[in-house]
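Q: What would this chain look like folded?
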Amino acid sequence: MIVIVDDNISNLRLAKNALEGFYDVFTLPSGEKLMNFLERHEPKLILLDIEMPGINGYQVISMLKRNPATRHIPVIFLTSKTDEKSELDGLNLGAVDYIYKPFMPQLLRKRIELHLAVDDQKQVLEAQALQLENQRLELQRFKDSLHKMVLEKTAKVYDVQKTILKIVATLVESRHTDIEVVPALGQERLDILINSMKELNIYRDQIEQWDFDLMLLSSQLHDLGKITIADDIIKKNDKLTVHEYETIKTHTSQGVNLIDRVAKTEEENDFLKFAKIFAGTHHEKWDGSGYPKGLSGEQIPLPGRLMAIVDVYDALISKRAYKRQLTHEEAVKVIVDGRGTHFDPFLVDVFVHASDKFRNLV
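A: My prediction, written as structure tokens:
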């Protein structure tokens, strides 16, 4: 549908005769009539005269372009104003073309055909763009949904892994005693020490590189090698012989061996790296008198130096048939007395800073 707006009846008739048979044509004598017409109809194109009584063509196109419902309708000025300024004003207001009267019917039809083709192509491109955007949004929704499903599945697998680790750690620790043990407390104490290190800015550059979740999980395997020690040694209530003590000490290297066997079937990852460090170095001592390798000072990896404090504290406050259960204060004194010999002196300071939080764990 094409609408022609002109206050001159002869001009309306001439334009209508040129277009009839090619398009559905409506003629209107004023801008006011056009605005009323557009409330009920949506033409494909408007041919608009400039000089009209009431609201002129410039005012009409300004109103059309301000209205979201009509701003997309192409407007061609069909006018006897032939000066360049008038043409430029019309184009600046949003007209797509400027045709001078009197016009050739064939030229008018060709110009209209061109603009309708351009407008149709524009609508096609807009529809394609809208379709692509809808497809993009649908794909994003699918990706978000898939990501959520992966996270949920990963969380379930992670929970299963944590449960298995807890069971293994409990079985290992329970070989010492008939009393129920809580391996997770070791994780919590390790977490307390790490957070206190951050507060005191001690070894911060090293700990900021760690994946804390994996590191804390892997700490439960620090005594994994004890499953290789015979029951008559590991559960002995009397003082160990020299030979038995040397056998007990092998649990560190045995733990590393067990983790290495797992590593052969898995890609190298931080969890296994941390587990090997905990298993192999938590009995090393700052002064080099520990085992299995007699490492000293910062030769001992930082996770192993941390676990040394946690492991000794747990052992001191735990009830065993072959030793007295120490109080928190007594355990703290033992660790403080080991500052610079058994333990990293800086980490002992961290432990003292955090010792009240250790006391509150049950």
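The chain has two domains: 2-123, 175-360.
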